[in-house]
């Protein structure tokens, strides 16, 4: 039996923290005792983790991750991505389907899920919405769902056909699976990855205006209300987008929204300072947008914090701003940024942070974990919130992060998945 003693337990389901001990056996939390009152019950055969001064929360779950496997494993693969996830405190991952070949067929789906089992954590994947991500023909959603796809997305390539999106929402809704959308209309974008504002002016390019995001969010929220599908608006970046989601939720639509740590932490000023390391789709925008995203997280409009972990090589990111690919890695810095930007600044409590980083993701995708409760999966992260670390090296195969060199709070000491210690600092 594994015993965790003297920790401060984060309970996102009941929105509280408390001192207590946990007993874990057979991959399940068998007993929780508040205030550590059962010292005598620990036997010499038990493995004990002393969590004094640390917090014990449900393992983090990221619903938007790119492990680049198959097809782009020089950037990341499922095994190295798993190591990065464990180091960051993640026990559950939902992969995006824009691999090569993409996850529009049973063979690739099986490959990803089989290799994911080797990581020691819970690796899930979405399947594509359209064959070959061409936006023309919808995949066999029913067959891929039956084989283990937890949702559907063509993330990376926006879907432009309204009729196709409507039909895809209807089919995903019939399967009770989330369908997620990358909301950037390419017809409105001159240069992706850089906000059409101060940053674009600095580089002398047209950039990507907020209207590109607003356009498709408006369309897809309308269709969500029409079809009653479970719809996820991915990596929201604009204040207008946040408000549109807020209004859709008020109307009773089954709509969810993601915020990335970089979008609630940085603005387009970072693209001027950091160059391609801060280039991503959708781009970092203005301070008013960053604050609107934080307010959306605070009031529940945005219910998911997802990293959009997107590894690229140094050579790729070393190109000029218009040629370098968009995206940054995020699994190893997400918890720390949530602590620094949201908890320490008073926007969210720890239970509220973990609702968005664990409880709601588990609930949306029907995954184990997301809570610290007797009889539930022993998927846990143990971390010291006040302890700091410098962002230098990564477990990820890539290092494309604008946070390199920063000193962040929150050090993960132990990650446990299914009752097994899968990472120890």
Explained architecture:
The structure is a single chain. The chain is an alpha/beta fold. It has 2 domains: 105 residues, Urease, subunit C, domain 1; 307 residues, Metal-dependent hydrolases (TIM Barrel), CATH 3.20.20.140. It is built from 13 helices and 16 strands. The strands form 3 sheets. Strands 1, 2, 3, 4, 5, 14, 15 and 16 form an 8-stranded mixed sheet that branches. Helix 6 packs parallel to helix 7. The longest helix has 18 residues.
CATH class of the largest domain: Alpha Beta
Overall pLDDT: 97
Shape verdict: globular
Which runs of at least 5 residues are low in confidence (pLDDT < 50)? Answer: none
What share of the residues lie within helices? 25-40%
The CATH superfamily of the largest domain is: Metal-dependent hydrolases
Secondary-structure element order, as H and E? EEEEEEHEHEHEHEHHEHEHHHEHHHEEE
CATH architecture of the largest domain: Alpha-Beta Barrel
The tally of structural domains comes to 2
Structural class: alpha/beta
First-to-last CA distance: 21 Å
Strand content: 15-25%
CATH topology assignment of the largest domain: TIM Barrel
How would you characterize the largest beta sheet? 8 strands, mixed
Query: Helix segment count?
Result: 13
Care to count the β-strands? 16
